[in-house]
Amino acid sequence: SPGVTSLVETILGGYSQDKGKKSAFRKKAVSLIENALAQAPSPENHQLAFSLIQWRYRDEEETEEMLRRQLADYQRFVVSYPESRLVTEALQRQADIYRQKLKDWAEAAEVYTRLIEEKNQKHLIPSLATCLVQLGNREKAISLLRTYLKEKPADYSSQLQLAETLLEAGHIAEGIASLRELLNSSAGQYLKEKASKTMKTYRQVIPDNFQWPAELTQALFICQKTQNYFFTNAPSLKPGDPLLAQRREKISVFPWTKERKNLSLTLSVTSDVSFLLTEPLSFIDKKEKTWTTSWEIQPLGCPEVWRKEEAWTLLFPWREITEKNCLVERLYQQQPDNTVSLTITVLLPEPGPWQLEIQTSRWQKLETIEPEPQEKLGSFIIYRGLSPETRPFTVVMKGKVPSSIQYVYPKLTLTRLVESAETRAEFLNRWNYQLSSGLQYTLALPEQEKIQLTHLVKQEETIYELDEKVEWQ
After folding, report:
1. Cis peptide upstream of residue 351 (ω within 30 degrees of 0)
2. Is the dihedral of CA 455, 294, 320, 471 positive or negative?
């Protein structure tokens, strides 16, 4: 009877509060229908046969054995009912089980390819691309996604997937451009958040105006950053408020080579001030009044200007201090028309310039922001080039937050970066540097390797971070 499928579903729904009766009925119904289909096989029963597979495994624990049985049942359905309109769905369920449950990328890719080529299921191209990336075939995945997005330019999720795949494959400039395009599109907030987070893990290593020496084959770009980090989880920061402070020393190494290859380097660091931890973890040796650590590293050399941010970091002890230079106040007010206003006032330390970053992810809708930020990255609004002469700097935001929130003080980050650079054109395989802080570090290549040029960027970054505070209704 055509009504059997809906009848079984109705009864199963009626037992939703009684798992014992639901399980007993499901098993009885499966047994009866299996026998009936065996006695009277017919192409007209394809809907019932397909539903039977779902009922057979409903509410069962997802073990590998159960998933393999389910795959076999869907394959039998495809063979038994080749003309059924449900064959496409049966094949897709096989592919999804291989990809999502079993992580069998090769089998999943084979079924997705069949669906795309034989059944014209082009919406499954992003799923196939995921499998190809896992199988190491990023270039084919990129080609498929590019073609797919020509027909579906508004599929922003696939655009993000393409950008991430480009970055993984080393096409960094193109990947960054794709992320920027996504951030300027009408994509949803969630995708823009992911794109923004990905963008922050990359940086332009080689300056646009850098003068390349003739016949250059290998160069080393080094970024040494001293980071003074101040943190509080209080709603506001006022002169005299206690802060947690930490010093961090970060060293990033970016080889430039005409051909893509990994260089083997040894990075050794010595400090006359004790550090407690390293990232990545390494052994710390103490001799008299010096502390030393080293890493064996293999940074990727390639001609790309943009690179993934990778740093080897020394973390010095946390300490509590009283900060007297910086003042930040956040005033959150509810308005009679159910909107809210947030006024952020910043009295900047000296000297500048400073960057102010405000996170707006808790807002349901932002109606106005004054002054207009220089940049919006997902839920972050950014003001650059702020100096102490702007006394004070004030931002006023108006809009709506979800009804579940009574008030919110957003996360706020104030950053200053002072930078200098120097270039050395020497045919060397070992470099020694000493900082004014007393930190010394050495980079060494194997004897047979030589670098023709090194470009060192020294940065001192000061960060004030006020954590988010939220009270729910």
Report:
1. yes
2. positive
